[in-house]
């Protein structure tokens, strides 16, 4: 049956041009072609096979990863891939390794925080991987609270050096990827101390290991922090620990783009605006939002295809059973996640624009939109990663028992993805930042400080406080302005309610603490409004391709009405809509599920994931699930022998009642 | 610092007697002493150490498990443990193995479905583990739909045998634990065929492997189905696949307690009621609910203790930072889970009673409460396992980055627990059964068929449709009857609304399909009502111990009001409460969090988990987290050598720019 497309019927049902949708998903024809080409390149290279990694022990897995990382680098050089292509190649390799941190954090940190000279000194080495770097910020005792880091960098004016030191156990660096076994260098964050004065946390470039024999340099203790969630997942990465015992580095290894220490030990600011850091944050978080859409799209692709293959119950007079994708409960769990994947994609696209906008303004020394951009990206990072993480697990459950097998691809996808909820800002801590920003925006409403960007609607707060939805029929919920207004009114009222409750406290900080759970709900409402609005704005653009825009409209409505249904309590308690209007939305949602159903397979095909990248037998493009599951099972190491290792020693004596004498 | 209790201050804050609470949690003094004794026995036996299992490859892990299983059996015999004690010992070993299925499914299946003779024939062998059995029901193609199984057992009247056969690939048995490598026997479910007539699915005892050399018997293909979620988790179990090629077994190996095949090939029913099967289901699901409370309690214990150890932000003038447990967001995420663990415990206790009640009635041929008991246990199984699974992951997130380490115990707890959402009935499929039962109960309201047990409130539907909460002040929400009435009204109205919508369909089955997402919400509301009610009923009993009942009252209110807040949309849209009353509930909830805060550590101490069983450095009893995390890291196999295996081969050539020539 090799070569048969078991999902051909499903593909024929589609009411839109899937090739055009692929380009919309990718963002441009260029992006599509790039991804398509590189993903196939990786998929067709046997060196990148990954289907057996889950059964390896830690050392084997790590070695396997080193081999792939080196092979990837070799191919990048042989093929002369540019930066964009090389990044894609690493992405599609789909196995976390030290190279991720080298390219994703070490190099950007030097680019962002290093002076021109520093960049000239370090980047050529890093770009050729003659040195390998990591990003050493988090410590055993401090992650979220970066200002609380304990590692010190004390300036010694006599020798013109900084002395890096780990004064306490909790000051040990802990978590940096690539640190444990591989990195030769690190950007280390430490408290700058000059003449006993603490200038707060700054970045330093430190060499960790000898370039000759790879041994840690004197005064440096390094190790791996041990196993993490999942079988392979992030265990291919050497997240590490690091301690300094009075290690000296030259003064010019402090990253000095924004502030500098002079030869005499004077601390000075350069002319480069400090706000630049926020620019970098916007950049990194935009990528995270984009990645959230990718991770979710992979899970949704697997669950959707398998739900069309899997049949259970409902056979009548010998007819085939019902495809589980036809059950309304399955649809109500799956299709909102499909819609979310698209929604986050467009939110990510918009964030990319925002980043450019912010950077242009920074150049022009216009910092006015920066706080809003910062709050907005913090919020979207939090929202999208949380939904993606939960969504992957929901997709796994949607696959029933077989979803629990690593060969489904879903367990490892979950395990490798979830740290995104924690790194680059714990999701709850981030939402609190958003809430703080919203409260500030509201407190300034009367002072003529008009809220900008994604908070502009708060400027219409008075009007929104009067709002009552005028929905009369289920179809009314398909109108973009009806939806946006309801979401604006809900978000505004939740924030206003918080602001009002806060005003009852004498000490605003006490109030903020006490009400923080409510504040998080208000922040969430605000972020959901952003995603809904950006999806709708996307649809106001020209989108070519037969039926493409229509499908996206359906997805957009599903996304919004699903949220409305899920958070109906918010809408009702703020009196934005009536219970009747809520149930009309629910009715509309059901009908949208039916509309999307015939297009579901084509909509996940549009993600253009290769079978290699999906790494899932349940999600195979051809739907040939059962024979391949059966085949794959035999490859488990336990099946190498008929009688498992340990049987004769431990189980046979038990069966033969000889256990008492057996040496265990 | 060894021996110092870093959480002593926290323990001193407690306002109740933790030893008394331990007994309430355990259910009785006997249960407490048993658990306490056996858990310490296991914890103190170095053979049962489990802290390094996550870094093992599949084969090593499996061998490690065989050793522990054999050692466990040896200790059980040496110490002459009774059945109850032996079960506890296996539980506290905390590593899934073939013995779980042998004792948990194989033996009970023979007890429940075998005739007296069959029990006499097989149980002595099984009880001594001279044979090892598993439970082979699920196939590659069918899990939820048991009636769709394809394996056949065809009666051959000539030889007085059944011929077991796997006619299709999808008929391969797939998933049974213990099957892949160890079991010598299985209870196999197959379609009984006599003279070409299909009598549906029945159970058969089949020998799979030779008791001499352990090789599969002729005609039998067996293997392991491969890696599953997590590092170690369920990978210590040999979930297996099994195919029969016309394998013959004697007629008396069909389990014949309820129906029989005679020597002549006649299919007859015995006098034993078929409903017995439901009794077994109630039994198994009661255990699952109980296990849900245990699993959740472990996660909550870890997250609570670590939240008291972890400090982040909020240092003023050099004072220590804030314990993260003092953040209201942390409390709003953590304390409802703490309350849920207790709530599920009491729900499980009540189900135990229900099981006895059902069995007594069965003896007396009273089947009247059976459908209700069945629906109720299905619902509670679904509700509690879903909440426990999500709750474990939430607890992991509550621990920030360190929760992602296996040494936190949480990743593996999640990975090993989540199948409970799928086996013994997929949670969504189960809720649909509950919904079906509710709709039936409502349809019979006018026919004088009074709803019984947990659905009795539907008998007061008319009255509940008139209900409006009379809450005026936040404290009113502390009154049990106020809470129960609101939950009853909400559940009744949601079910009634579904029933009304269903009545609009010509074909009720079409309606049920179309509205199934709403039906699931109604079923959930019903199940939550049960848990709330049973918690409240528990508190109407005499509960000795200083302050114990008071704490439980707070937890009960937290459980109920948290649900009310989370599902506020249900309460508002059904017009049971007003938005104002909803926000009063929320206000009360905040104050309850403050009340429970000083007792939080003692409340998780009351679970009486040993450090061995918790398997978590973050959750250590003594709170000595950081030094132990640091110590544990060094034990990872990657730290065996300073230079990792693969470095010279793959990374050094890269650093030295010699990659082009290197043989990768
Ligand atoms: C896989 C992985 C890779 C990583 N890679 C790197 C790396 O390469 N380099 C690096 O430097 N670091 C890395 N990290 C570390 C990561 O950045 C931190 O774990 C992250 O910042 C979270 O901080 P934390 O662990 O201190 O969480 P904590 O702050 O300790 O969080 C614990 C709990 O406290 C709550 N909390 C904390 N503060 C507040 C507050 N003010 N109000 C309310 N609640 C609060 C949180 O919500 C959470 O529930 C990595 C982490 C992981 C898991
Ligand atoms: C760790 C583990 C151990 C196991 N151990 C054993 C064992 O020892 N012995 C054994 O025999 N089996 C075992 N099983 C198998 C287990 O019992 C089945 O996986 C389980 O019954 C679920 O069935 P399924 O896999 O067919 O799910 P499916 O029914 O295929 O579920 C797939 C999706 O379809 C949906 N769905 C299915 N039917 C309907 C419907 N009518 N309406 C709406 N939605 C529907 C589900 O909700 C789910 O989202 C084990 C499974 C696991 C994961």
UniProtKB/TrEMBL annotation, chains A, B:
Record: active site: 424
Which keywords, in A-to-Z order, does the entry hold? FAD, Fatty acid metabolism, Flavoprotein, Lipid metabolism, Oxidoreductase, Peroxisome
Q: Which GO terms describe its molecular function?
A: acyl-CoA oxidase activity; FAD binding; fatty acid binding
Look up keyword Nucleotide-binding and say if it applies.
no
Q: Which residues of this UniProt protein bind FAD?
A: 138, 177
A Gene Ontology biological process noted in the UniProt record is: fatty acid beta-oxidation using acyl-CoA oxidase
Q: Which family does it belong to?
A: Belongs to the acyl-CoA oxidase family.
| The protein's name in its UniProt record | Acyl-coenzyme A oxidase
What is the species of this protein? Lupinus angustifolius
């Amino acid at each position: 049956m090799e070569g048969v497309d078991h999902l051909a019927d499903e593909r024929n049902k589609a009411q839109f041009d899937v090739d055009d949708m692929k380009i919309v998903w990718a963002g441009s024809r260029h992006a599509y072609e790039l991804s398509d080409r590189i993903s196939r390149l990786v998929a067709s290279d046997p060196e990148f096979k990954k289907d057996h990694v889950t059964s390896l022990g830690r050392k084997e897995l790590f070695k396997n990863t080193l081999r792939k990382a080196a092979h990837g680098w070799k191919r990048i050089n042989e093929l002369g891939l540019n930066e964009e292509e090389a990044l894609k190649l690493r992405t599609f390799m789909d196995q976390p390794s030290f190279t991720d941190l080298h390219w994703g954090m070490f190099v950007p940190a030097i680019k962002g925080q290093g002076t021109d000279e520093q960049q000239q000194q370090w980047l050529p080495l890093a770009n050729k991987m003659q040195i390998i770097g990591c990003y050493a910020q988090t410590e055993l005792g401090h992650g979220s609270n970066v200002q609380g880091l304990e590692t010190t960098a004390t300036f010694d004016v006599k020798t013109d050096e900084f002395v890096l030191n780990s004064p306490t156990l909790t000051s040990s660096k802990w978590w940096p990827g690539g640190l444990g076994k591989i990195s030769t260098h690190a950007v280390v964050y430490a408290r700058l101390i000059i003449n006993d004065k603490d200038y707060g946390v700054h970045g330093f470039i430190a060499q960790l290991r000898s370039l000759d024999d790879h041994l840690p340099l004197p005064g440096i203790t390094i190790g791996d922090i041990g196993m993490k969630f999942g079988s392979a997942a992030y265990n291919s990465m050497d997240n590490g620990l690091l301690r300094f015992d009075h290690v000296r580095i030259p003064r010019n290894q402090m990253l000095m783009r924004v502030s500098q220490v002079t030869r005499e030990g004077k601390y000075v600011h350069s002319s480069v605006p400090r706000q630049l850091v926020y620019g970098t944050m916007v950049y990194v978080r935009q990528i995270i939002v984009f990645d959230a859409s990718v991770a979710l799209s992979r899970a949704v692709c697997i669950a959707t295809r398998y739900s069309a293959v899997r049949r259970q119950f409902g056979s009548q007079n010998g007819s085939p059973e019902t495809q589980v994708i036809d059950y309304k409960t399955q649809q109500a769990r799956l299709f909102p996640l499909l819609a979310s994947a698209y929604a986050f994609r467009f939110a990510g696209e918009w964030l990319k624009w925002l980043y450019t906008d912010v950077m242009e303004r920074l150049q022009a020394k216009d910092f006015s939109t920066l706080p809003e951009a910062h709050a907005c990206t913090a919020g979207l990072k939090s929202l999208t990663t949380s939904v993606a993480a939960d969504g992957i697990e929901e997709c796994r459950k949607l696959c029933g028992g077989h979803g629990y097998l690593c060969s489904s691809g879903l367990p490892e996808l979950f395990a490798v993805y979830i740290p995104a909820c924690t790194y680059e800002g714990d999701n709850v801590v981030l939402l609190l930042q958003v809430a703080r920003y919203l409260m500030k925006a509201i407190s300034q409403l009367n002072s003529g400080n008009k809220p900008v960007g994604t908070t502009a609607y708060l400027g219409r707060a008075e009007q929104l406080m009067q709002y009552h939805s005028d929905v009369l029929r289920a179809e009314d919920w398909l109108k973009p302005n009806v939806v946006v207004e309801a979401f604006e009114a809900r978000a505004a009222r939740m924030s206003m309610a918080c602001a009002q409750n806060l005003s009852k406290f004498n000490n605003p900080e006490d109030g903020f603490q006490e009400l923080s759970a409510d504040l998080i709900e208000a922040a969430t409402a605000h972020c959901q409004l952003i995603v809904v609005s950006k999806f709708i704005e996307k649809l106001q653009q020209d989108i070519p391709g037969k039926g493409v825009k229509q499908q996206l409209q359906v997805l957009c409505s599903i996304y919004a009405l699903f949220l409305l249904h899920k958070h109906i309590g918010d809408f009702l308690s703020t009196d934005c809509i009536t219970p009747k209007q809520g149930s009309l939305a629910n009715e509309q949602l059901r009908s949208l599920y039916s509309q999307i159903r015939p297009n579901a397979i084509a909509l996940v095909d549009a993600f253009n994931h290769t079978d290699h990248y999906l790494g899932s037998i349940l999600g195979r493009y051809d739907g040939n699930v059962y024979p391949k599951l059966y085949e794959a099972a035999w490859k488990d190491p336990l099946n190498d022998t008929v009688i498992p290792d340990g049987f004769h020693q431990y189980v046979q004596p038990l069966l033969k009642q000889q256990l008492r004498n057996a040496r265990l």
